[in-house]
Design goal:
CATH superfamily of the largest domain: NIF3 (NGG1p interacting factor 3)-like
Radius of gyration: 19 Å
CATH architecture of the largest domain: 3-Layer(aba) Sandwich
Number of domains: 2
CATH class of the largest domain: Alpha Beta
Number of helices: 10
Order of helices and strands: HEEHEHEHHEEHEEHEHEHHE
Length: about 260
């Protein structure tokens, strides 16, 4: 199939339009020519040197990542950082790098948080912090478990679903968990919205020490880790493209790009 890169990107951007990304973000085609024919697509959470090498070995000339490898401006390309080396390697191997980041975070039905909610078994989901002009888009989701769960059982459920080495959480309240808020990645900024939504628990990542105090015992704040919270984004992106191009060479990365380890 002689398909240009831009055709693959059009499918992704129909689901998550670029205008939905936050002002600080750098989603989109970061390296590569959109008119280049695609030989194969590799889906990942992070574009790294190892992922670019994996793409080369698998004959893929397009890497679709959730996180943008270039987040802030590059002033030089001399290989001094992993970002520069990854970009240089992609250019050298003629591999395009694309990121679909906060625009995918801000989508309700087929976004990052929808994937999390589905894994946790949440129903009747709605956007936690909707955009005023576009009510079905925005940050985070809140939904309902099929049946209320004991707090300890819920945290074990979360740990298992996210394959987390540990779950950092606030004190248990001796109340069942039924309404759950979620936000993939760094979502602690949504804690006030989770409280207003009446959530019994808020599952996210990257929470700072003092933010656990901010929960004030009104819900369980559970931090599963950044990579862990967004890992199912890879499957989500794969499924979106496979639906339109079922016979195309599509691959899920085999590289675990999580930079955080636990002793």
């Amino acid at each position: 199939m002689n398909i240009p890169i831009k055709n693959i990107l059009d499918v992704l951007e129909t689901v998550a339009p670029p205008q939905l990304q936050e002002s600080y973000d750098n989603a989109g085609l970061i390296v590569g020519n959109p008119d280049t024919p695609v030989s194969g697509v590799l889906f990942c959470l992070d574009s790294t040197e190892a992922v670019v090498e994996e793409a080369r070995q698998k004959g893929c000339n397009l890497v679709v990542a959730h996180h943008p490898i270039v987040f802030r401006g590059l002033k030089r390309l001399n290989g001094a950082s992993y970002v520069e080396r990854t970009v240089m390697q992609a250019i050298r191997c003629d591999i395009a790098l694309y990121a679909i980041h906060t625009n995918l975070d801000n989508v309700h039905r087929l976004g990052v948080n929808a994937a999390i909610a589905a894994k946790l078994g949440l129903s009747d989901t709605r956007i936690l912090a909707p955009r005023s002009a576009m009510p079905d888009t925005g940050a985070g989701l809140v939904g309902i478990l099929t049946a209320p769960m004991d707090e300890h059982a819920f945290l074990q459920h979360v740990k298992r679903i996210f394959q987390a080495a540990c779950v950092r959480h606030t004190a248990l309240r001796n109340r069942p968990v039924h309404r759950v808020a979620v936000c993939g990645g760094s979502g602690s900024f949504l804690l006030p919205e989770a409280l207003r939504a009446g959530a019994d628990a808020f599952v996210t990542a990257d929470c700072k020490y003092h933010e656990f105090f901010d929960a004030e015992g009104r819900l369980i704040l559970a931090d599963v880790g950044h990579f862990e919270s967004e890992q199912y984004t890879i499957e989500l992106l794969f499924g979106i493209v496979r639906e339109k191009f079922p016979n195309f060479a599509l691959h899920l990365t085999e590289v675990r790009t999580n930079p955080v380890f636990y002793l």
